[in-house]
Amino acid sequence: QSALTQPASVSGSPGQSITISCTGTSNDVGTYNLVSWYQQHPGKAPKLMIYGGSTRPSGVSNRFSGSKSGNTASLTISGLQAEDEADYYCCSYAGSNTLIFGGGTKLTVL
Amino acid sequence: EVQLVESGGVVVQPGGSLRLSCAASGFTFDDYAMHWVRQAAGKGLEWVSLISWDGGSTYYADSVKGRFTISRDNSKNSLYLQVNSLRAEDTALYYCAKGGYDYGDAIDYWGQGTLVTVSS
């Protein structure tokens, strides 16, 4: 099964908003409201930012939000800050008790 | 505080085997499914395997099916991954990760990873 499709990179200036897309198929993103998003800084473990498509775990800034339309999920970060610069990965339940990740997106804060 | 500490990563020759371990603390281990996820250097995350709370059900990515075996010992709060018939493409940082009550629940905590290098 191929990875979910994410843009390789996105960028934005401090204070701006950016959106990272995550495109799957009707076998994963399109069928299940079980998309999660992870932030990974260099040399660090991933950190859960969004689960269930749009729910933020306790302690995650409300500048992070998630949504879904059809086979595409999206992560929006508003009010960009320097500390948001990291790699971001989407992940979806893919049926048959398996998960599938996106290829990752490098966010650069200009 | 949830803690997941992996160990067992080494340099191994192609075709070799090893066993990765993960010591869990800070949560009720036998309430949750657990995962292994790997990441090759400079590459993205790849889901490897899932085990149910009681160890009775296991699931694998096609890329490792038949070569890797996930298991757990709830009496020791420990997760394991037996990896056999290793290939160069298995070289990666292997993360132990905590799942939810249901298989589709998001991974919410990750260890720091243990490095497996397959090289002759």
Indicate the low-confidence ranges of chain A by residue numbers: none
- Class inferred from helices and paired strands of chain B: mainly beta
The number of distinct β-strands of chain B equals 11
Instruction: Provide the residue-averaged pLDDT of chain A.
Output: 96
Rounded to the nearest angstrom, the radius of gyration of chain B is: 13 Å
Oligomerization state:
heterodimer
Mass-distribution shape of chain A: globular
User: What count of helical segments of chain B does DSSP give?
Assistant: 0
Terminal Cα separation of chain A, in Å?
Answer: 35 Å
Major beta sheet of chain B, specifics? 7 strands, mixed
* Helix-strand sequence of chain A: EEEEEEEEE
Coarse morphology of chain B: globular
Q: Largest interface: which pair?
A: A-B, 25 and 23 residues
Helix content of chain B: under 10%
The proportion of strand residues of chain B reads: over 45%
Question: What fraction of residues of chain A sit in β-strands?
Answer: 35-45%
SSE order of chain B, one letter for each helix or strand: EEEEEEEEEEE
Strand count, sense and barrel status of the largest sheet of chain A are:
6 strands, mixed
